[in-house]
Amino acid sequence: MMGQSKKDFQRLFIYTLSPVALLLVWEMLARTGAIDARFFPAPSSIIYHLLFVSPSEGILTDIQYSVYRISVGYVLGCLIGMTLGIAMGLSKAVRLMFYPIIIATYPIPKIAILPLIMLIFGIGEMSKIVVVAIGCFFLVLINTLHGVDSLEKIYRDVAAVYKITKRNFIFSIAFPRALPSIFTGLKLAIGYSLVIVVAAEFSGADKGIGYLIWQSWETFSIKSMYAGIFVIGLLGFLFSYSLDLLERRLIPWLEKQ
Known about the structure:
The structure is a single chain. The protein has helices spanning 2-32, 43-57, 59-90, 92-105, 114-121, 125-149, 153-161, 166-201, 209-218, 222-250. It has 257 residues and is mostly helical. The chain has one domain: MetI-like (MetI-like fold), CATH 1.10.3720.10.
């Protein structure tokens, strides 16, 4: 257990090296005047603003609203995507029914249908949750379907020979074997959900990180704008790293770099 914790800490340390190196280079360029500090403030000043100024401006409330919208939309979209992806992978009838709809609607930019979603669900929380859920749904569904399709035929043959029930086949064979592809979809979806929620909060919102960034741009509050961008980057890092840890726990047999 301690060995695994040590590996996780080492991996976290390695993950943070490149972002820290980028911030150090940025800091040096800003301090030496190589870049215009009016538009690219030093990271140290942005972090100071984020920690000691932004809380009084309400950034903690903005973070809470954005995280809530992301969490609910992400969970809903991923659960529906996984369920339908498994069903399509195991049933030809379900695939024939839904696959044409999926390939026709997937290319549509999800943020482009936000006005329609707002028309249906209003400009409150539900519209932002729904647009996040839709974006996550497609990514998880497609990767789940790929994972189930990659299941070797021998597993289906053995299940048929031993008369394994559909339920046991799904939970004991199909789902575990599809987990690597499912996690790929989950990781893509969490990053995409951050993009969508920020874009959705640009309009029709009075709270959220996207609202903060847009309002800061309108008032030319550069450090507040960067503070919001830093928060989005940090949330993306934490969410993705958490999924990576969960993947390693649930799929220990995979060889990881």
